[in-house]
């Protein structure tokens, strides 16, 4: 089969172009076509004679070249193009002689194709043999260089082998390439072993390996400069040899050799039946490796790093040694972790030590964050699932212990007022510390998906703790003002506050984004599109559902506490509600007035409950408590005292005195304007204490306004609210003010 040049036109195009050029537009002229056919036949006869003449004397390869050259010179095309031309002419003329000619030439074309295939095969064999010869020559050159201690020449010969190996990658000669690579590995090992032997001798003179912390440098020896030169030569040669490896080694060759004595020590002490190989003491080998890293850093930076820099190697000697030592630790940790999967205590201890090792590696040894340490070993499915199981199990055990402890519901800072603002009981603080410790353990994991699993565990534990608090609260609900009930409320508030802060923490915001991008079902499964959108825009929080449950529990507990308190205050307020407000005489001098005797039990109760709540509740909860108490007390006094009685001028004055001089100041300890939290009582006192003339005018105004409201009101008339606002009444509606005015007994003519 003939091959065409990549830029050669298709045969059909060539035929059309040829006919157009030779015949022009006169395709119907048989004479012109006949002349062209005669010319082509003559050329074909000449070519056949040339082939027959030289076929017996010329070798096959020269014969092919000669035929092709004559074909090209005569027809300006390859033999197949000539055949296609003849075929095209035969098609045009539909002439039988042309068909016979083509059939007669076909065997010749087949023979020529076979000859070309044979030539190609022989040529490939020749190249194959030349390549083998070249490999043998390079191998002999390496051997000769090593016999004469010409290491650099040997390395260059090995480099040539590596170049040849790269060139054979696409050849398909797998056996030849295997042979070359075996030869390459053979000489690599020979040269490396020779250099390694010399390198180890030099390192020994430099007191490597450095097992203990280096002391002050000794006086330089006489051959210090010579040792330094040998060190540089050997490191440079090892680096040059490394470049000819078919695949890059895991560590640069000089560091590999420097690592050998440390590797032997590590395997001697921490494998086999040695006492130092204890499953319960992973800190022994982890600490040992950290010490080796620290002790060797000065040597690597002062002795090896300058040589690497001068050789143009973009390698940190200290980091490279750490990588080598880490490979030893990684193998050991992976082996230990798989053996400890069924021992919760030992596995938990291993995880703790690995996390501590990773922390010191990144901080004290400045190991680059882009390089893997040990944490990825903890992300293996079996290890990670077991770690999560152990975390859950131990957390539940600790929750049981902390809730049953003797001082579970007392604050450890109760005697330090400045530090006891949240008044969190010890069990709540211990629980949140537990969650924080879990966070610190998984914070450094390099996989957001794994981090989200631990966050899910934290949410489960927090909800479990909430349920436990609810159960204890129900047992204490018969005494909502008791110390334990208030401690539970403080615990709920404390946990809610901390989780709210976590929702704004950068680390948890990053996890929130990861949950959205990964589509984590554990966090997004029950959420709608809007909720997921809020999470994606950082408007929401991964703790929102849990915070809602905690806020509901806090609201229920606070409501129960205030209802209990108001029940007691209401009982104490009954005499005050039934006081004879209508018959109290008028007192023009308020300096002689005193608190109503019937109000004393109520006032004492309010004072005592405020003091108690202030002592047992956190600051934020107490703010909610006294404001909620003020709102309920305002409603009680307005409904049961004011709207349920009629007031003489003296009764109204006494009510105002009791409220402004006694009740409001009780809340004045906790805010600047307590009367603003008793709007109904305050404004009712204003209305009840108006002088007669102002009261009459106001009543008339309100009645007129009420009449106009029933019909068409004039747009020019000012609304009655403006008159009330001038008196300081903003909360009460005009209809409520009319009711209050009707409760006054001091009207003219009455």
TrEMBL record:
Question: Top-down, what is the taxonomic lineage of the species of origin?
Answer: Eukaryota, Metazoa, Chordata, Craniata, Vertebrata
Q: Which organism is it from?
A: Scophthalmus maximus (Turbot)
Its BP terms in the Gene Ontology are:
endoplasmic reticulum to Golgi vesicle-mediated transport; regulation of ER to Golgi vesicle-mediated transport; retrograde vesicle-mediated transport, Golgi to endoplasmic reticulum
Q: What is this protein called?
A: RAD50-interacting protein 1
Task: Choose one Gene Ontology CC annotation of this protein and give it.
Answer: Dsl1/NZR complex
- Similarity remark: Belongs to the RINT1 family.
């Amino acid at each position: 089969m003939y091959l065409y040049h990549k830029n050669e036109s298709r045969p059909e195009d060539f035929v059309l172009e040829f006919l157009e050029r030779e015949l022009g537009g006169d395709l119907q002229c048989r004479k012109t076509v006949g002349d062209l056919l005669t010319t082509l036949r003559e050329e074909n006869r000449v070519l056949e004679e040339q082939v027959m003449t030289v076929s017996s004397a010329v070798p096959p390869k020269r014969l092919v070249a000669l035929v092709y050259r004559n074909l090209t010179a005569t027809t300006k095309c390859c033999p197949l193009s000539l055949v296609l031309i003849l075929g095209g002419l035969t098609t045009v003329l539909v002439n039988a002689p042309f068909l016979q000619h083509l059939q007669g030439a076909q065997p010749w074309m087949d023979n020529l194709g076979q000859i070309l295939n044979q030539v190609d095969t022989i040529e490939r064999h020749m190249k194959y043999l030349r390549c083998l010869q070249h490999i043998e020559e390079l191998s002999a050159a390496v051997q000769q260089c090593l016999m004469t201690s010409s290491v650099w020449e040997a390395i260059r010969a090995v480099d040539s082998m590596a170049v040849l190996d790269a060139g054979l990658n696409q050849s398909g000669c797998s056996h030849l390439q295997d042979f070359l690579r075996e030869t390459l590995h053979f000489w690599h090992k020979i040269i490396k072993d020779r250099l390694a032997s010399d390198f180890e001798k030099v390192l020994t003179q430099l007191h490597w390996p450095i097992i203990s912390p280096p002391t002050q440098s000794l006086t330089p020896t006489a051959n210090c400069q010579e040792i330094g030169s040998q060190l540089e030569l050997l490191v440079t040669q090892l680096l040059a040899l490394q470049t000819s490896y078919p695949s890059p080694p895991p560590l640069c060759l000089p560091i590999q050799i420097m690592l050998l004595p440390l590797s032997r020590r590590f395997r001697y002490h921490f494998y086999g039946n040695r006492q130092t190989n204890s499953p319960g003491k992973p800190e022994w080998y982890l600490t040992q490796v950290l010490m080796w890293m620290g002790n060797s850093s000065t040597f690597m930076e002062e002795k090896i790093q300058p040589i690497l820099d001068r050789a143009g190697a973009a390698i940190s000697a200290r980091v490279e040694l750490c990588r080598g030592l880490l490979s030893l630790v990684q193998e050991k940790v992976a082996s230990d972790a798989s053996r400890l999967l069924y021992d919760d205590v030992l596995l938990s201890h291993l995880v703790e030590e690995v996390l501590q090792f990773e922390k010191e590696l990144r901080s004290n040894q400045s190991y680059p964050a882009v390089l893997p340490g040990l944490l990825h070993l903890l992300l293996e499915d079996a290890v990670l699932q077991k770690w999560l199981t152990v975390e859950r199990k131990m957390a539940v055990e600790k929750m049981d212990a902390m809730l049953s402890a003797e001082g579970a519901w007392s604050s450890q800072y109760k005697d330090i007022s400045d530090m006891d603002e949240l008044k969190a009981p010890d069990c709540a603080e211990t629980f949140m510390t537990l969650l924080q410790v879990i966070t610190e353990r998984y914070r450094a994991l390099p996989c957001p998906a794994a981090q989200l699993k631990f966050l899910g565990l934290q949410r489960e534990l927090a909800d479990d703790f909430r349920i436990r608090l609810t159960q204890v609260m129900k047992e204490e609900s018969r005494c909502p003002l008791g110390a334990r009930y208030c401690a539970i409320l403080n615990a709920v508030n404390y946990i809610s506050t901390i989780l709210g802060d976590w929702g704004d923490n950068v680390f948890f915001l990053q996890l929130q984004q990861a949950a959205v991008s990964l589509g984590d079902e554990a966090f997004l499964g029950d959420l709608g599109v809007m909720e997921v959108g809020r999470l994606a825009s950082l408007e929401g929080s991964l703790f929102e559902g849990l915070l809602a449950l905690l806020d509901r529990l806090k609201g229920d507990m606070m409501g129960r506490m205030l209802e209990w308190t108001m029940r007691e205050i209401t009982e104490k307020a009954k005499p005050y509600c039934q006081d004879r407000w209508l018959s109290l005489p008028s007192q023009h001098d308020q300096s002689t007035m005193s608190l109503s005797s019937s109000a004393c039990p109520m006032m004492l109760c309010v004072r005592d409950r405020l003091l108690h709540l202030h002592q047992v509740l956190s600051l934020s909860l107490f703010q909610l408590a006294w404001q909620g108490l003020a709102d309920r007390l305002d409603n009680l006094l307005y409904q049961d005292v004011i709207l349920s009685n009629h007031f003489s001028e003296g009764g109204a004055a006494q009510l105002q005195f009791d409220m402004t001089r006694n009740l409001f100041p009780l809340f004045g300890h906790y805010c600047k304007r307590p009367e603003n939290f008793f709007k109904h009582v305050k404004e009712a006192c204003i209305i009840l204490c108006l002088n007669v003339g102002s009261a009459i005018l106001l009543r008339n105004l309100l009645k007129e306004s009420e009449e106009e409201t029933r019909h068409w009101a004039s747009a020019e008339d000012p609304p009655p609210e403006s008159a009330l606002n001038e008196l300081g009444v903003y909360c009460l509606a005009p209809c409520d003010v009319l009711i209050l005015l009707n409760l006054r007994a001091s009207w003219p003519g009455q």
